[in-house]
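URGENT: need a sanity check before tomorrow's submission.

F., can you look over the Cobalt transporter record below? I want to be sure the sequence and structure line up before it goes out.
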Amino acid sequence: MSQTAALPTPVHAPLPAAIPLRQLLPWAVFGLLLAALAMYFVGAEQGATAIFSGTYIHEFTHDGRHLLSFPCH
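Structure tokens as predicted:
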């Protein structure tokens, strides 16, 4: 008695469509500007480079400074 078994054929999912660079570039620029702004407020908004007077920004980002190893006092 002979038995044959059919092997399942692999089913490939279609590849996602590529995102054109023209659509991706504005989001990349926005992300880089947002990251630079966040790094400024966490790392440099104190003392001589302060844009805002007072210590509100410093106190708001104080724990983030220590988490990212920025010296602050």
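My own read: The radius of gyration is 26 Å. The mean pLDDT is 82. If you see anything odd, call me.
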